[in-house]
Design goal:
The chain is built from two helices and 16 strands. By secondary structure, it is mainly beta.
């Protein structure tokens, strides 16, 4: 079916440059904010599930509080293309350094809504792991479909399943499946620091939709948001890794 396209101009986005955020990172965050604003202005219905963890880290100084979050957005539209038309750095009224961007965007509005009957039950993912522990879990889909599992860390993004050993397979509704599927494979979680917050994101789709882009957090989140809501179920789990 045809999808509606909406063209928007001069969409603003901004992010604070701080000790933990470089100008390059702030620019990417500002672009993400502008994209979300474009979706809102286009009238795209939106549901955001956000996992926020406030924890202490000794990476730079004792008991430094670092706020980490990942947002998985289930929307009825996507940014099909965009262009940064303006960007600059400036200080706000409190002296903070801000990176601001302005975008021109094309938003594609999907026709279908979320299918609440297309769901999965996930068990076995713990909240806390020791470095080099093995991740395993079980899922029971309500209906037939295909699973993709992503692992997002502080500085890395990876696709756990499918992989070179475990090929994509169609899962049957009502049956229980254990992962890893292969006894020759382990999903290891680890950290080089004393503590790290990571995310396991399970994408279950009605059709086999391969992820073919470079493995980055931005590309994965864009991939998740770009799939029609009626064709997917997304489950997001926060895991803490300790040494």
């Amino acid at each position: 079916t045809a999808q509606q396209k909406v063209t928007l101009t001069n969409i603003p986005g901004s992010w604070v440059i701080s000790a933990d955020i470089t100008p390059t990172q702030a620019r990417e965050k500002a672009i993400q904010q502008a994209k979300l604003e474009a979706l809102r202005q286009a009238g795209v219905p939106e549901r955001i599930s956000e996992s926020n963890i406030l924890y202490k880290s000794d990476k730079k100084r004792d008991f430094q509080e670092i706020f980490k979050s990942i947002v998985t957005t289930s929307v009825s539209g996507e940014i099909s293309e965009y262009k940064v038309t303006k960007e600059d750095k400036h200080t706000d009224q409190y002296g903070g350094l801000i990176y601001s961007v302005t975008l021109n965007c094309t938003v594609v509005i999907h026709n279908s809504k979320e299918d609440l009957s297309f769901n999965i039950e996930v068990t076995g993912i713990r909240e806390t792991y020791q470095s080099s522990d093995q991740l395993s879990f079980d899922i029971k889909p309500f209906k037939d479909g295909f699973l993709t599992v992503f692992y997002l860390g502080d500085s890395t993004a990876d696709k756990i399943y499918p992989n070179p050993i475990e090929r994509p397979e169609k899962l049957e509704g009502g049956k229980n499946y254990h992962f890893p599927r292969s006894k020759a494979l382990e999903y290891e979680v680890s950290t080089k620091g004393s503590l790290e917050i990571n995310y396991v994101v399970l994408l279950y789709t009605k059709q086999d939709i391969p992820f073919n882009k470079k493995l980055t957090t931005d590309n994965i989140l864009q991939f998740l948001a770009g799939i029609d809501p009626g064709e997917k179920c997304v489950r997001n789990f926060t895991v803490t890794i300790k040494r």
